[in-house]
Amino acid sequence: ENNHKSDSRGALIVLEGLDRSGKTSQSSRLLSYLEGLGHSVESWRFPDRNTGVGQMISSYLANESQLDDHTIHLLFSANRWEKRSLMETKLRSGTTLIVDRYSFSGVAFSSAKGLDIEWCKAPEIGLLAPDLVLYLDIPPEKAAERGGYGGERYEQLEFQRKVAHSYQILRDGSWKTVNAWLPFDDVEKQLREMVLDSVTTCQKGKSLSK
Ligand code: DGP
Ligand code: NA
Ligand code: NA
């Protein structure tokens, strides 16, 4: 019903960026911050390597298996789809989710390989729309200097440059960009404000969209 005021709910907050942009550390800092303020909040990440699909993805990333580029793209997407209903339940029950990577990673990484960008977007249609996308912006060269990559498939400077370019194409006015090569504390400070704002808006009953 259109005129029915929707209930208070949690916010879907997504962190995006290159490998070694600091998303994982910032996710856990934001989690502690919001918990400290008494909010119900969970930290999630994609790919979720704990599911059957996630294990296939993990083995691909470790170069232990080879898959066609389209096939792995669809697996990453399936990994988000298998969490969709739980995600909706959590948000509706008032829990905020801080998610380390989501659909934009799917499109950015696969289109960086040369797959058609519209084809890449298609399987993401119908997943829940983030309330806030935080882009941790770092030049690929700076990210590469940060204590080295872990050796997974995509963790190479040349490829990360292409991913950065794809993110640039995807980025729109709704994303909030944070300079991620500042010290971690400064990055955190910027993120805190943005996140709190989004949590408050959703508590007031902003409706959930696809
Ligand atoms: P992470 O666990 O955040 O380090 O992610 C593992 C790697 O997989 C990282 O290089 C980013 C990449 N990745 C994450 N999500 C997707 C996706 O949906 N599609 C593709 N092709 N790559 C992804
Ligand atoms: Na990684
Ligand atoms: Na990460």
TrEMBL record:
Key word Nucleotide-binding present: yes
Enzyme type, top EC level: transferase
SUPFAM superfamilies assigned: P-loop containing nucleoside triphosphate hydrolases
Secretion signal, residue range per the UniProt entry: none
Organism: Actinidia chinensis var. chinensis
Segments passing through the bilayer: none
Annotated NCBIfam families: DTMP_kinase
CC terms in the record's Gene Ontology section: cytosol; mitochondrion; nucleus
Similarity field: Belongs to the thymidylate kinase family.
Domain Thymidylate kinase-like: 15-190
Molecular function as annotated in GO: ATP binding; dTMP kinase activity; nucleoside diphosphate kinase activity
Gene Ontology biological-process entries: dTDP biosynthetic process; dTTP biosynthetic process; dUDP biosynthetic process
Protein name in UniProt: Thymidylate kinase
Pathway noted in the entry: Pyrimidine metabolism; dTTP biosynthesis
UniProt cross-references to Pfam families, sorted A to Z: Thymidylate_kin (PF02223)
Documented EC number(s): 2.7.4.9
